[in-house]
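Sample 3 of the quickstart, ligand adenosine monophosphate:
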Amino acid sequence: MSELDLILIGPPGAGKGTQAANLVEDFGLPYIATGDILRAAVKDGTELGKKAKGYMDAGDLVPDDVIVGVVAERLEDDDTRDGFVLDGFPRTIPQAEALDRSLDEMGRRLTAVLCIDVPDDVLVKRISGRRICPDGHVYHVDFHPPKREDVCDTDGKPLEQRPDDAPDKVKRRLEVYHEQTAPLVDFYDDRGLLHRFDGTRSKDEVRDHIRATLSTLRLEETA
Ligand code: AMP
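Result:
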């Protein structure tokens, strides 16, 4: 059976991270989230982090040439042999074209693009209540509160709001999504790769829907 090379797209707060974690668990694939890679680079003060920080703090995208090489290199690691789950990349048409070229060079092609749709008003509510611990555990003040306010249940560390989850930054990130990333929906639809999911449904329903879609794809592949 060929690899499962998957992309998750959708606006910030659509639940891509949650569904990616399910895919990792269900299929044992490596999770490649460019937002996580960039946040780690900022924290470590690397060259990449220095280039990215200003854009990220403003809720803007980092330039394509900053991120494209990072992903191309990551995809060459051994653990992507059976596939990968890309979250947060591509975010623009030039990034999507660069990804096609990288995969082409590796003799691979995307299996599916999973697009999670959620209306903006729901997203604003979800993102502005999001809290994270330094180790990445994610909570929500209303929908998934920690047992003790502002403290991580898992490791007892204080919870914080991501700087770009502040309300004015969220508005900017949604604008950027609609302007620069939403065109990818048509881009992948034209290539017959797009599968849409209703991200206002429960996490489990979205998970089941994604599983069913991928099972159908695999059945088609072996037919
Ligand atoms: P995320 O965690 O995916 O919401 O990403 C957080 C921030 O990292 C974004 O608002 C961008 O500033 C930056 N970023 C992440 N992925 C990309 C990408 N593929 N292209 C450009 N900027 C990105």
